Amino acid sequence: MEITFYIAAIIAVVSTIMVITRLNAVHALLYLIVSLLAVALIFFLLGAPFAAALEVIIYAGAIMVLFVFVIMMLNLGKESVAQENRWFTPYLWLGPGILSFVLLIELVYLLATDSSALSSAEMITPQQVGVALFGPYLLAVELAAMLLLTGLVGAYHLGREEPEEKP
Amino acid sequence: MLASIPTEHGLYLAAALFLLGLIGVLVRRNLIFMLLSLEIMLNATGLAFIVAGARWGEPEGQIMFMLILAVAAAEVAVALALILLIYRRFGTLDADRISGMRG
Question: Which residue, A19, A64, A113, B74, could crosslink A151 as a Cys pair with Cβ 3.0–4.6 Å?
């Protein structure tokens, strides 16, 4: 039963590595969708089926479709791939990469030294989430609604065609 | 028949995904790829919240995940509109070519 978690975790990490090393944007998107699906499986294993469904529908569905539309509109093509290939040289990212790796090792050490707590994974049903969401967290729902409306108006305003300037 | 996954292992996975996203933001020069890496980081944060919620058996973790989802959706909409604007105005998505200010 636990082996499914580790397989999904390995799939998530490997596909995320593929995302940040692909040169073609559409290939990276496909790998990112695989990574999100693996994370959704992990949510399900952790007893959060509602979050797993939201991950698949909103992240892997809606947000990735937005990315695909914009990539099709931009039509970046071959010279963009060549440019990324030129920038993909080690001397730029070796320093930050090594420092981040040291941080990862430190975090793993800190978590490994206190390995007493095991997750008592019990299912949290969508009903519990809904009751909490519309009980004590009603203000957060309102704030999320305002945020999404702001995002809609902002994206429309930024994305429209600029009017021709009068000479 | 739920698996009893150690909490640390879920947090390791979240930390690894977050660091991969951070490395992506630092390494890539194309704005589309930087935005994808930001999405990876947000997703890793949501995973950490879900793991914590499963650890204590509370629905608050999933509520935080939903708020992160709403933030990610709004952020992606605005950022993609900005990318379209930048591409229309500068003709490139190279973050180094558009980093200079016109002052």
Answer: B74
pLDDT score, position A118: 43
**Which of A7, A27, A63 is best to mutate for the B interface (most B CBs within 10 A)?**
A63
In a domain, A85, yes or no: yes
d(CA B33, CA A25): 7
Measured CA to CA, the distance from residue A75 to residue B2 in angstroms comes to 45
Question: Which residues of chain B are within 8 Å of residue A4 when distances are taken between CB atoms?
Answer: 3
pLDDT, tens digit, 9 for 90 and up, residues A47-64 = 888 999 999 999 888 888
Beta carbons of A42 and B3 less than 8 Å apart = no
Using the predicted structure, report yes or no on whether residue A128 has a pLDDT greater than 50.
yes
Q: Within a domain: residue B58?
A: yes
Nearest CA to B29 among B88, B98, B80, B89?
B98
Q: Which residues contact A68 (CB under 8 A, 6 or more apart)?
A: A26, A29
d(CA A60, CA A36): 6
Contact status of B71 with chain A (Cβ, < 8 Å): yes
At B85, which CATH number? Answer: 1.10.287.3510
The pLDDT mean for chain A works out to 81
pLDDT of residue B17: 94
What are the residue ranges in chain B where pLDDT is below 70?
Answer: 1-3, 103
Q: What pLDDT does residue B50 have?
A: 92
Range of the domain at A141: 125-160
